[in-house]
User: Fold this.
Amino acid sequence: MNKNRLEAFSDGVIAIIITIMVLELKVPHEPTFAALSELAPVFLSYVLSFIYVGIYWNNHHHLWQMGKQVNGRILWANLHLLFWLSLLPFATAWSGETSFAELPMAAYGFVLWMAALAYFILVRAMISHHGKESALAVAIGNDFKGIVSLIGYTVAIIVAFFNPLISLGLYAAVAMHWFIPDRRIEKTIGR
Amino acid sequence: MNKNRLEAFSDGVIAIIITIMVLELKVPHEPTFAALSELAPVFLSYVLSFIYVGIYWNNHHHLWQMGKQVNGRILWANLHLLFWLSLLPFATAWSGETSFAELPMAAYGFVLWMAALAYFILVRAMISHHGKESALAVAIGNDFKGIVSLIGYTVAIIVAFFNPLISLGLYAAVAMHWFIPDRRIEKTIGR
Amino acid sequence: MNKNRLEAFSDGVIAIIITIMVLELKVPHEPTFAALSELAPVFLSYVLSFIYVGIYWNNHHHLWQMGKQVNGRILWANLHLLFWLSLLPFATAWSGETSFAELPMAAYGFVLWMAALAYFILVRAMISHHGKESALAVAIGNDFKGIVSLIGYTVAIIVAFFNPLISLGLYAAVAMHWFIPDRRIEKTIGR
Amino acid sequence: MNKNRLEAFSDGVIAIIITIMVLELKVPHEPTFAALSELAPVFLSYVLSFIYVGIYWNNHHHLWQMGKQVNGRILWANLHLLFWLSLLPFATAWSGETSFAELPMAAYGFVLWMAALAYFILVRAMISHHGKESALAVAIGNDFKGIVSLIGYTVAIIVAFFNPLISLGLYAAVAMHWFIPDRRIEKTIGR
Assistant:
């Protein structure tokens, strides 16, 4: 089974997810700075989510550089990841609309948590198919960055109920930490 | 004629279908659990339909692994399948909005019925083009799973008018039964 | 310059056009047959436009089987075609919303007219680039089918102001006449 | 690392951007010329933005003809460009909705300015990766056209606050000036 269609389909879904988020930037009827500045929280949440989806696309891209084959389990693990990413526009819009209220910020973290888990499951499914000695398994190694992210999201979800803006800062911090695509894989490819 | 564009176009349409369904999860204005829990039926119908579209994409992927050529009839049979899949977001949203009322649940089943029929017609068009002795025809064999699904949908449509929640359970059961991609083809490829 | 990206981009745009039309099927709040039957004209216009977009995708697919190269003029001729196709969802929704009123039906024909003209310009740009002796030019020959369509649209636009339902019938008739993909090209490829 | 997925993903995002803009053409309830003519400014802004997105797609296409490799920095420079392009539908709709009012026209120019800057950064990232002696670097040369555009946008943004229609004319003029795909690259490929 070949991986090209899986990549193409994932690209399509991710491209749509990243683009439909902008539809939440509702066009104001008034041509004024006041109308524009009301959109600030929605815009800010859009920027953050654009970066997150960009990170996922980048890492997905890097991951499949090393993936050679697909099986039924990998197909579904990939769809499972896309499912959680597809909820990001909702969580983004809810956070923006409510100017980063408690529950929406926790929900945002929950969606990120589940997407990270889904990514982890996908990586495991791919390693178990390609073998523990495969270039992929070696490149991934122990998923330190992934674990740090999960801790970050967990803290942010709890903090959201007390101070959602600190929570927002934590999501931004985790994003920064992922900004650079997965060096582990790049290093292995570069050899 | 080559199959790559047909696959790419189908991937595009299916990627959009699977993603626009999430737009029905209307962003609540209130940042409360009550507002979130009101979305439960819409969310549940989204999950079910995501799985169904995922199943179709998986099976389409498997089918075209074996398909080598395209002709005019196959092109239209494929578009016909995409047409019925494109109605799934509507049926999904209607079911969710009305909290699984009678008619919407029957309509949901009708769309699944027609999509299954369209898939069947596509398979026949491909077998008649590739020949009865082709790997494709051998791999498909007698379409037992497809027939079971049609029976399941038919029962679910009738039951919908009496107890739409049983009907919902039947749609979920058929989805479970398709969850694993078509072993018949996988086995033949594996040889 | 290679044609793959042009095909992929066109597929993406056409896939989106064909799918967003379904968003005009606004989900009714009532789970009743009455609510569903109110959607009949919108649904009917969706079916017709789905077939038209399908025809364009099929013919585009056939055309580019024979096209080998791309230049700046061909790129823009292709974008020009996509522009007019992108207006089809608007014309479709307007026709459906107004239950096939006079002006919307004429507007529908106008969009089809311009799309047909854009297709004609694209074909000319491709022939002038590939040469009058190219397989493409030979396969196209005199564009009888295209001319018949333009006459059909012209009549339908005029008739729309007197009896828009006859006009609808004419659009359906032209669609039927294009249903079968361009035999001229298929024959030449088959040789 | 290969460039195919980057191209495919960019194509997907650009295809969606160019298509969702048409959703701002809200379907009128009345089947009259009056209702249609009210849409004129929205339609005009759609045409202009369609051409701009088309120009970016064309230039992106030309640029990647010469690009051979991708690294993390190029991936993010490309996503950065897509981010600003994704704001064009918003700026377009705002301009159209307010019939080309002062602030929206300035915002439109700001988005174009940032997209042009993002394109410039992408080109620099690609040249620094491929080397100053690469065909890409030679083909780009001194980016005269890009500088002229930035000057045009800057003037248009300032003028927008005094006479937004002159500003609109300037955006149209810059678009005309980019209409023809980048001859510099075409010439180098043609050699």
